[in-house]
């Protein structure tokens, strides 16, 4: 069996440096922003050590442009970006397909995704594990999947849940208690 060739590109966005890796079948890995190109490359290569820098295809260039627009605050739909989930568990693939249907500015919960897939509430942990292992974060919008009760939950990307909150804020989503309806008097 031939070894799959992975190429990658590190690029700058308004949110920091991102990385994208691809095969002939689609995007295989996406690295959310870090503060430096070196750290982004190091994180990307930790998951794909045999990947080589490459010249992006037109489809990859479109994905990169969409990512740049996203981090500038523009509404972007990544559902048309081809992803290569080769080697992923079948249930995780189903979870990722369901997560891709959660559109800009919307959220869901681990439990709701599990229920949508016909699994019981115990599968919410599996959904959480799939989100933590998501190889193409943002393109598969794991940041839009929250814990029970609309709590932020975990986030395995650089910056953790703070990064998740920033991404949701870019989309106009407020997570947390609602602001008070009555303002204090200024005296």
User: What gross morphology would you assign?
Assistant: globular
User: In which order are the strands of the major sheet placed?
Assistant: 3-2-1-4
User: What's the main sheet like?
Assistant: 4 strands, mixed
Structural class: alpha/beta
* Beginning-to-end CA distance, first to last residue: 76 Å
The helix/strand series, from N terminus to C terminus, equals EEEHEHHEHHEH
Beta content: 15-25%
Helical residue percent band: 25-40%
Number of strands: 6
Q: Would you write up a description of this structure?
A:
It contains 6 helices and 6 strands; from the N terminus they run βββαβααβααβα. About 35% of the residues lie in helices and about 15% in strands. The strands form 2 sheets. It has a 4-stranded mixed sheet. The chain is of the alpha/beta class and about 190 residues long.
Keyword list:
about 190 residues, alpha/beta, four-stranded mixed β-sheet, 6 helices, about 35% helix, about 15% strand, DNA repair, MethylDNA_cys_MeTrfase_DNA-bd, MethylDNA_cys_MeTrfase_DNAb
Quick gist of this model?
This protein is of the alpha/beta class. Helices cover 34% and strands 16% of the residues. The protein has helices at residues 37-47, 58-71, 90-100, 110-116, 124-132, 160-170; strands at 7-13, 16-23, 26-34, 52-53, 108-109, 145-146.
């Amino acid at each position: 069996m031939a070894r799959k060739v992975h190429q990658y590109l590190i690029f700058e966005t308004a949110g920091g440096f991102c990385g994208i890796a691809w095969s002939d079948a689609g995007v295989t890995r996406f690295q959310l922003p870090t503060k430096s190109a070196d750290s982004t490359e190091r994180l990307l290569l930790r998951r794909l050590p045999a990947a080589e820098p490459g010249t992006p295809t037109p489809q990859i260039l479109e994905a990169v442009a969409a990512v740049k627009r996203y981090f500038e605050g523009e509404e972007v739909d990544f559902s048309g970006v081809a992803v290569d989930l080769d080697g992923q568990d079948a249930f995780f693939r189903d979870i990722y397909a369901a997560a891709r249907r959660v559109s800009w500015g919307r959220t869901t919960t681990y439990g709701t995704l599990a229920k949508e897939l016909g699994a019981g509430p115990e599968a919410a942990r599996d959904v959480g594990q799939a989100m933590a292992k998501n190889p193409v974060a943002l393109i598969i919008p794991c940041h839009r999947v929250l814990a029970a009760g609309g709590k932020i939950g975990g986030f395995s990307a650089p910056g953790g849940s703070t990064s998740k909150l920033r991404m949701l804020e870019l989309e106009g989503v407020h997570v947390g208690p609602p602001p008070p309806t009555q303002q204090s008097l200024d005296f």
